[in-house]
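User: Structure tokens for both sequences below?

Assistant:
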Amino acid sequence: MTEKALDVVVVGSCMTDLVSQAPRLPKAGETIHGHKFFIGFGGKGANQCVQAARLGVKTAMICKVGKDFFGNNYIQNFKDNEVLTDFVSQTSDEATGAASIIVNEEGENAIVIVAGANMLLGKEELQEALPAIRRAKVLLCQLEINPQTSLQALQMAREHKVKTVFNPAPAISDLDCNFYTVSDVFCCNESEAELLTGCSVADVEDAHRAAQELQKRGCSAVIITLGSQGCVVLKAQESKSIHVPAAAVTAVDTTTHPGFGCHKGFCGACVLPAKHVIPPSCFPAEPAAVSVVSLTV
């Protein structure tokens, strides 16, 4: 199947979310009773990959999980969503990545993430996946795995004239400058844009300025998501950015911060028109709007 063209290849993370809901967050050393528990499939890369697959494109995931119960379940989840799993590798050296999440009645949370097998994804796995990368229309990366692995994947895609989408999350202040020059679409949220540029991004006007600054660093197109305010889009080879409003929604559940799922679903949707380098004017805000009203994202 990897000999056939793929629409989207995602290089990134898989996290099993262990979510407990309780009236409040416990204090240090305290045990409290919760009222709901569930296990979900998370991880920035996996969320983006599954979102793209659910939108109907041929999608492959390049990642690493543990040889354990969670890893086996994650591979099956990819298959259930028609994601190609030829390059989902398993290791006995680390457990599948996991996030322990406690959420109170106000939607505030406390999270502990153990990256585990995600951090073992490296050059060897990328070389093995080269047949998929070079046949892709778009490659998507983030920073929840070793940053150098993401950078190498983007560089490999560029070498084979594959369009690249980079989501710098979780953001790091000393981001390697090469990430900008290998990104056809640089997609981040307001807090990530603020950390990367050193400038406040509190509203749409701030986002316009931040997009200009990010594009000056070498990326072709920039998208800055702004939650309920929509997003700002700076197209490739254009000097003026545009604001795309978001659809008004009512959140039906505050299990986790909406940004965890909907921003990643947004990035998954971005890859559909990425072969044209930037999306039509109104596409970006809709996947986030749909995700935020779901019970889980």
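Moving on to the next sequence.
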Amino acid sequence: MNQTEERHAEIYSPHHRSQSEDIDLECTSYEYFVCKKPFCSKSDLNRQIPVLSNEKNSKCSVCKNNEKHFKCSVCNKSFSQKYKLNKHLHVHCNEKHFKCSVCNKSFSWKFTLNRHLLVHSNEKHFKCSVCNNSFSQKSTLKTHLLAHSNEKHFKCSVCNKSFSRKSSLKTHLLVHSNEKHFKCSVCNKSFSQKYKLNNHLLVHSNEKHFKCTVCNKSFSSKFTLNRHLLVHSNEKHFKCSVCNKSFSQKSTLKTHLLVHSNEKHFKCSVCNKSFSWKSSLNRHLLVHSNEKHFK
């Protein structure tokens, strides 16, 4: 019996009920010390004590409400009633007293810190029933399980494309922004997505694993191969909005569009004459080379 039970011994003392037509004579009652409410068994009383003790106006006839058995786990302040402790705990909502010794991240609650510590351990108790991948936190497993479902709850507000994971949506949103966080260490070209950088890096390698089945030409990335394959097809998906001429490759369309513009980006370094096409500039340069031959 703990200290509270000893101080309130009458809670557990049996009281025989008075005879009455509607009361069972065989029933031995247990009386709750606050409201004197009788119970037929000790288990019934114990079950009801948490409910009754939460009543705001209840007063202890033994300790006169001076004993404070409900202690705050954050600041050790004690309260006589549980509802007061619960109310007090809101004070600590913004306070983060529990610091992780590994990464110094702070938490408001000790149980939250304990849960966080699993991240730093090699213990992964939460296993995916689909692919057997294991995780240290239940929340991470829940997020992972979305990958195996067809449900896509995260929708892009720009293009309405949907994703099963919030992280995938965040990565996708970079496409619509001008932010390019992934920089190539070789040529400093930047990309909005990591997979695009990875594809680009293959350009700087001599490895060309992707071979065209039509002409046997090899490419360093699958993306480049797919783009090349359009050359061998009659499909021309890229149409000029000015003259409706179609092209199999986007790059070819871009080059073609210069015809319809007055922009001449290719300047001759000899006479400063400008051209819309690089091929035109190269052809023009022959003029200056012929001049040199006749001097």
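User: Anything stand out in the second?

Assistant: Confidence is low (pLDDT under 50) at residues 7-28, 50-63.
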